[in-house]
Amino acid sequence: MIHEYSDVQTINLGDGTRVWQYVVILPGAKIGKDCNICSHCLVENDVILGDRVTVKSGVQIWDGITIEDDVFIGPNVTFANDPFPRSKKYPEKFSKTIIREGASIGANATILPGIKVGRNSMIGAGSVVTKDVPDFTVVIGNPARVIRKI
Fold first, then answer.
1. Which end of the chain has the lower number of beta carbons within 10 A, N or C?
2. Residue 110 CA to chain centroid, in angstroms?
């Protein structure tokens, strides 16, 4: 299902994936099956979303970001892909950010460029993730810190 008010340019859209209104997906993006991409989202070209990924409203997924299977991205999560952004000056290659299988990212969290978020980890709402998150951990705060293992 692709809402009539969305602009889905990719042909790499998995079966059963739902794209809601006011979503833009650029031609190079690869989206898995049974995903749910809520309204007001942007997915750039050099992006991979695995199967059964949920992307809540207001999320922009920039070049260089890979999101593996069964990941939850909360509303208004912010990803960054350039550690030294300047207007009209682009890096040769954007930082690679990887969100591993089963991870959950709470609303309004910020993920800085080049971060790896571990399998089945959880990031608390509003956290600012400045370094890699190990598998099976919960992080919260600014900067995000480990509060427990899962």
1. N
2. 10
CA atoms of 62 and 131, how far apart (whole Å): 18
pLDDT of residue 19: 98
Predicted local distance difference test score (pLDDT) of residue 102: 98
For residue 148, what is the enclosing H or E element? strand 145-149
Cα gap 79→113, rounded to integer Å: 7
pLDDT for position 88: 93
How many C-beta neighbours within 10 Å does residue 38 have? 19
Residue type, 50: G
Which parts of the chain register pLDDT below 50?
Answer: none
pLDDT at 94: 93
Q: Which of 110, 104, 108 is nearest to 137 (CA)?
A: 104
Beta carbons within 10 angstroms of residue 40's beta carbon: 16
Q: Any idea of the CA torsion for 132, 123, 23, 26, to the nearest 10 degrees?
A: 10
Type of residue found at 141: G
Is the entire prediction scored with pTM above 0.85? yes
